[in-house]
Design goal:
By secondary structure, the protein is of the alpha/beta class. The protein contains 13 helices and 11 strands.
Length: 383
């Protein structure tokens, strides 16, 4: 399947487009930026940054401790050969998306004499991107940001689109800001060292794009499920590029989620965030919660008469083929529904869900039927 060419542009600061180097533009007027997708081109990351931000004189690198001594060290070394560079290590895991960790970063930035000419460079997964992004958005009322996602989930989702934030005890991403990066640099080489569970978790967000926007991409995922789980380079690369193209187009249409268009990116997430909040952050990887949440959303859509059972079965089969969970046996329906009341899509105290109406199409729908929501949460499978 060919990717639509109208979302893909060539950067004048980079070598000619090749299988190793693909540039996708997020079109937002004077806030537009490129997503550069490369394979085994890690040595070019610093030149990518400097080509986009030639006035960079101070880099504030915020990195996951798990990769501080591996992927991050080459970038830090390269930056230090061209500018002043300070580094802050963040403990791995969802618990780091906290007020306490954010406060530590603010104090570090102040100690580093950061100013509005400084650039925050986030290296790691979604936790690092969200946390560092919010630090960039809020310190000195806004510093430039470069996202260098090193997990599949971050590459196809959280690094793109400008949503940043931290968690509160009872709600995921409840404090944050829209803050677009100046550049996103993705190199599929970083996926080689991910643990299986972390890598597979990211496939949930890839599946999401097929369900919400592109039925042919969904069919392609079905045909390539085994290859994707096995991390076949060509398959993974195409999945990342297509996912980023879809997200770039949706974000360009509705940057701040004012028209409802961008809300479709939250398919499965109202349930997923409630799963994470009630299970305790860190119990599930985000992608695992999203996989379960998508299945719960499909069950709710079925109960509301929006879809036929075949869609639920097709989605379940794809999720399972990607070795992701479809149910949570320990789900507490009442606690999850209570957690959903704090979801950012709630309007006038009414719950709103992104629900499928067909493969490739979803809608934002109000549902306050607690019994139907509870039934959707209850573990079940479909044969």
């Amino acid at each position: 399947m060919e990717s639509p060419s109208h979302h893909v542009t060539q950067s004048p600061n980079q070598p000619e487009s090749s299988p190793e180097n693909r540039s996708i533009t997020v079109s937002l007027g004077n806030r537009s930026y490129r997503i550069v997708v490369s394979s085994n081109q890690w040595h070019q990351v610093v030149s990518q940054i400097m080509g986009t931000l030639p006035d960079l004189t101070h880099g504030l690198v915020i990195v996951d401790t798990a990769i501080a001594g591996s992927w991050a060290q080459d970038i830090v070394r390269g930056l230090r050969s061209t500018c002043r560079c300070d580094v802050f290590d963040v403990p791995s895991g969802e618990p780091s998306k906290s007020v306490d960790q954010l406060a530590k970063i603010w104090e570090w930035m102040h100690a580093c004499r950061a100013d509005r000419a400084s650039v925050v460079i986030a290296i790691g997964g979604g936790v690092i991107g969200d946390l560092a992004g919010f630090a960039a958005a809020s310190y000195a009322r806004g510093l430039r940001l470069v996202q260098i996602p090193t997990t599949l989930l971050a590459q196809v989702d959280s690094s793109v689109g400008g949503k940043t934030g931290i968690n509160l005890t009872g709600g995921k991403n409840m404090v944050g800001a829209f803050w677009q990066p100046s550049l996103v640099v993705i190199d599929t080489q970083t996926l080689d060292t991910l643990p299986d569970r972390t890598y597979v978790s990211g496939l949930a967000e890839v599946i999401k794009y097929g369900v919400i926007e592109d039925a042919s991409f969904f069919d392609w995922l079905v045909s390539k499920a085994e290859s994707l789980v096995a991390r076949d380079p060509a398959s993974v690369r195409h999945a990342i590029i297509r996912s980023c193209e879809i997200k770039a187009a949706v974000v360009a249409d509705d940057e701040r989620e004012t028209t409802g268009r961008r809300a479709i990116l939250n398919y499965g997430h109202t349930f997923a965030h409630a799963i994470e909040a009630t299970a305790g952050y860190g119990s599930f990887l985000h992608g695992e919660a999203v996989a379960i949440g998508m299945q719960m959303a499909a069950q709710l859509a079925l109960a509301m008469g929006l879809i036929e059972a075949d869609l639920v079965r097709r989605q379940q089969a794809l999720i399972e083929s990607m070795q992701l969970p479809i149910t949570w046996p320990g789900a507490d329906e009442k606690a999850m529904i209570a957690a959903m009341q704090t979801d950012k899509k709630v309007a006038h105290a009414k719950l709103r869900f992104v629900l499928p109406t067909a493969i490739g199409r979803v809608e934002l729908i109000t549902c306050n039927d607690a019994a139907a929501i509870a039934e959707a949460i209850r573990p079940r499978g479909m044969n």
